[in-house]
Every structure is written in structure tokens, then in C-alpha cells.
Amino acid sequence: MEKTSLNLIKLDTTNEKYLQDIIDDKYFGYPLAPLLTAESRLQDKEQSSVAYFSMEFGLAPSVYHTFKSANPLSPANLLARHEVFSNMKDMDYYHFLPVNKMLDLPIYSGGLGVLAGDTLKSAADLGISLVGVGILWTKGYFKQKFWFRAGGQLPDQLAWDPHSYPGLIPLKPKVKINISGQELTLKLWKYYIYSHDLKQVVPLILLDSNLEENPEYFRDLTDQLYRSTNGWIKICQRAILGMAGVKALEALGYNINKYHLNEGHAAFAFVEKAKTENPEKLKKMFAYTCHTPVEAGHDRFDLQELQHTLGAEATEIIKRFGRDEKHPNQGNLTLLAMSTSEHANAVAQKHGEVTRLQFPNYREKIQSITNGVHTHTWISQSVRDLLNKHKDVLGEWENYPNLLAHVQNLKSDQKFRQDLWQAHHENKKILAKFLESWYFDEQAFTIAWARRLAPYKRPGLLLRDTNRLLDIAKRLGPIQIIIAGKAHPADVPASIHMDEMMEKITMLNGERKSLRICFLENYDTYFAKMLTSSVDVWLNNPLPPFEASGTSGMKAIVNGVLQLSTLDGWVVEAADMKIGKIFGYVPPPGKIGDENDLKMDEDAEALYKSLEELIPLYNKKDPAWIDMMINCLAASSFFNTQRMVAEYREKIWQV
Ligand SMILES: *Cc1c(COP(=O)(O)O)cnc(C)c1O
């Protein structure tokens, strides 16, 4: 291993164990050369580069680009057993899911993090000079344990081992910021994201406060993602991401022209820069993506507490650019990010309209760039193999996912139609095998609802009227339902939804001939890939207009899996593409409405009616069903991060 290469990487070589994995021309089994190119490009003063800040990154390395290490995988980094809470209680007691794989890098909680991860992957695919900035959460988000006696979840701490996680390396430089009058030192880590063809790389820097030289109360600051014990911790976590993040980029010698804030959590990056540079000039270098129309998603902090924690200089800047008009004693990170960024964007067309209503003062600057997913991460092997047999029609779709639109030209190809049904059933077979202890049947109509359990996403809608559901199953054929998702431990309404769902599932015990319901413990990107590629219908039923975009349905369509969705987020843009069935409440134009008025009864009935239409089509293998599967694949030519990142590059970064 050459010294100059190690210098470029800035690896901390005090622990020689890492040198076994970075050897000759390999980095944990992957080619080293593109990594060195990316590093020198970021350090090149002539080159324009982007820094992408995000509180969380979901990289799904257990299902895509898994690094290989010469060191054995620590048991702490193996996925623990997963339980199932079903209406087949006798099975729940004796079985758990047969999972035996590496833990996904646990520095994300849900869709926002997965989007950030997919963004880095597509930036690598497109060869953009970009670096991610995030936090190494030493206890991850949290581990969900089911509470079998009474239903519901018990949040458990996750203990994983960063020191033996394949691909994760400690760096030599450290950075310091001042918190509450004391010095906080941050250790830096690096993780590399390879393009799908392994020819290009994007690095991710992760900050970590768990250092012996820090006092105890500082060491825990980066332990748990979205820990909300008190305001001070939240301010500190945001200062680490934004302020220490800026210092980390400097310490690594990166020449950054655009600071992209994925959500307002990172808004203190501007504050740090504005301490030494002209704020008006700085604005041109900042861009901000706003992700949530839900009020609780916007960070607000007491100005006095900000002053105590971050000092007078920082607080003056926050007051100047992020004072909340409605709450004059608070600094608002959404407003701060909005007013200090030359470009701001919402994450779908509809979300753009809602965001402009919420922030009328910034109407002009708010663009819409619709989210996507990383095609190579989420497409299943069977569908990929099938598409590759049709390169005469689809061309180099793996390099240019927009070419998937041509799949429409295969609609009249009977062999293709048959093969697509077959490819789907290969995936479904994997799921049936996975759940065989719960009598899962590869033939039966299967639907999934899986994502964060947030009230506006209405996790309990499908189970609203279980008698009605049972009646449908008895008349039209058996139904299998898979549910998965975590409720943030402090989100009481979400936990109540979960308790109610489990109570209903319990009441259906004994109905397994018609209705099999499995709630899977500890949803993560591994399950996301398995479920989005294997069920027949992907259910998405947020209360419009509160879903900014949603992305899990995009993972499903790239596998030809139909959507059953309310008209919200990205689905508004796909409404005419015939990718399944749209149902439910539509808000009047120009109104945001009330996120607490969930409209459960009306929309549950609309959902049951939709199921009555869809189930017979599936059970008959109706040609209209296969048409919709093909429409799904065609739609994924647009809803991918390659298109999305290219839009960011053109409209915002201009690098
Ligand atoms: C994709 C993904 C999500 C996002 O789901 P939405 O339906 O967009 O809310 C959440 N969690 C995990 C683990 C995911 O992979």
C-alpha cells in the first residue's frame, strides 16, 4: 500500500487491522483506483464539488455492494432474530424469521435516510464530485421488540460495532467545536459508495463524539438518531452535523462550492460559514431540500438555549436569518435554511404547491424536484435478468434507467408477459418460503403496508373494519397481509396505532384459512427490498396532502409491483400511468387541511372497494393486470434517483 494513497484517504493507521482490507489495489474487495480519483478530485482547487449534508443515510449494504473484510464479522453486526406478530399465534411462539445477514449500516430511520443513500449512489453513477456528510450513530436508531403479551413495541437499544463494520474506516484528522462553553472533539469516519459499475466513487464522512477525551455528557451526543430527550441534545446533534460537518470538510482539504442541506437539520452549516464569510455571498453556495409538510417536522429552538449552547456569535446569525415570526423567542431551522439558501426545493410537484402555501415569503425560490429510488439497489435479480434478455428493445437500461420507458414496446410480446409474471412469482416464492411457518401461499393474493408508523401515513387503515376485510377474503379468495414499521419511541399516537393494529390481528386468530396477517419486527432496508419486490400489491395510504413524496412505492414499481395508493406525493404525478388503483380523499386545491382529521372510515371503505376490484383481476391473471405490471416498470424510467440527481445537478448545483 503506497503512502500517498493512504494520505489521500487520511486513514488512521494506528490500528493495523484496517491495512488488511486496504491492500494493493483493493478496498474491502473493491477496486481502489476510483476511490483515489474521487479523493483527489475533491481536494482539487480547480474542481467544483458538492457537499451533501444529511442527519441520516440508508445505504442498504446488505442488499447492494456488500464490502468484504479479511476480519471476521462481529456478531454485533449480524442481524438479530426477527419475530412475527400474526393472527396465527401458535406459530409466533415457536418460530422466528430465518434471517442471517449483515446488519445494514444503522445510521438511518426511514425514507429520508434511504433517499440520502440513494442520492449518493446515483451521484457516484453519474460521476459527480460529491461528498456526503452525516453522523455515525453508535447506537443506531433503535431496535424494535414486539411485546407479545399485550401487543405493541418495546424500543430496545441497538449495540453494533463500527470498528469491524466492513468498509467503515476511522480517519486521522479530528475536529473541534465549542458547545456550552466547552470544547467538543469529533472523530471522523469514512465510508465509500461505489457506482454500480464500480468505476466511480463518492465518499461519506461520518462524525462521532464517542471519544475518551470528551466528557461523558458529550460522548453520548451521537449515540441515537432522533433522540429527543431534551432541546439541548437536539441542538448539539444539529451543531455536530452542520458546524462540525463544515470543519470536517476543511480538515480533509475538500474544495466545496455547493453545500446541500437535506432537510433543515443541517442549517447550522451556514451559521458556521457565516462566522468568517460574507453571508450574502455565502447564500449562493447553499441549497436546501425541504421534506415535510407536517408541522412537527420543523425544528424550533429557544433563542436563550441556543445562546447558552452555541454562543452569542452563532445566535446573532440565527436571529438574523431564522427568527420565527410566529414564535419570536425561537430560532426556526426550516426558516433559517430557507432564507440562507439560494435554491430551495420540495420533493414532488404536489409537495411544491403545499410548501409554497406554507412559506409564502419564499414562493419564488421553491422549486419541485421529484424524488426517486436507486434502480440498481431496488430491482430484484429475476426482473433484472428478464430485462437484460430484451436489450434489443431496452438498450443499455442499466446505465440509463430512462430507457425503461421502452418496456411499453414489449406489451404485445406474449412471451415477455408470461416471463414477467414468472419473474414476479420467483420473488413471491422467496417470500412464501420466508414465511412458510405462517402458512404463506405463493398463489394467494398478497398485499403489504411497510414504512415508518407515523399517524398521517395511516398504518391501521387496512385493518379499520376487519369484518369487512374478512368478508372480502371469504367471497373473493384468501388474502395475505404483511405489515412492518417502527414507531418513533416518543410518538405516542403512532404507538397507539400500533397497539390497535395488534389487537385487531389478535382478534382474527383462527381465521387463517381466509386471512393471514403478519406484522414483521424491526423493519429495515433488507425487508424493504424483499417486500417491495415480492408482494402483489404495495399499499400506500397517507392522508393527502401530508406525504411529501414517499419512495417505497417506487421500489415496488421497478419490480413490476402494482400500487394501491391515495392521491398524494409522487403518486399524483403517476396517476395517469395506470400503475394500479388510486382511492380515497382528495383535499380541495389551495388548502393544507388538518393532519389530525384522518378520515379513516371513508377512506377504509374506499380501500375495501378497491380491493374488490383488484383481487379478481389478480386471481384470474387478467391481461389488464399484466398491462399494469408493465406500466409500473415503464413508470420507473422517471421515478429513479439517476433522473433526480441529474435534475439537482442542472437546476441547483450547476457543477
Ligand atoms: C424506502 C423505505 C422507507 C420509505 O417508505 P415510504 O413509503 O416512502 O414512507 C422507509 N423505511 C425503509 C426501511 C425503507 O427502505
UniProtKB/TrEMBL annotation:
<dbReference type="GO" id="GO:0008184">
    <property type="term" value="F:glycogen phosphorylase activity"/>
</dbReference>
<dbReference type="InterPro" id="IPR052182">
    <property type="entry name" value="Glycogen/Maltodextrin_Phosph"/>
</dbReference>
<comment type="similarity">
    <text>Belongs to the glycogen phosphorylase family.</text>
</comment>
<dbReference type="GO" id="GO:0030170">
    <property type="term" value="F:pyridoxal phosphate binding"/>
</dbReference>
<keyword id="KW-0663">Pyridoxal phosphate</keyword>
<dbReference type="InterPro" id="IPR011834">
    <property type="entry name" value="Agluc_phsphrylas"/>
</dbReference>
<dbReference type="InterPro" id="IPR000811">
    <property type="entry name" value="Glyco_trans_35"/>
</dbReference>
<feature type="modified residue" description="N6-(pyridoxal phosphate)lysine">
    <location>
        <position position="555"/>
    </location>
</feature>
<dbReference type="Pfam" id="PF00343">
    <property type="entry name" value="Phosphorylase"/>
</dbReference>
<protein>
    <recommendedName>
        <fullName>Glycogen phosphorylase</fullName>
    </recommendedName>
</protein>
<dbReference type="GO" id="GO:0005975">
    <property type="term" value="P:carbohydrate metabolic process"/>
</dbReference>
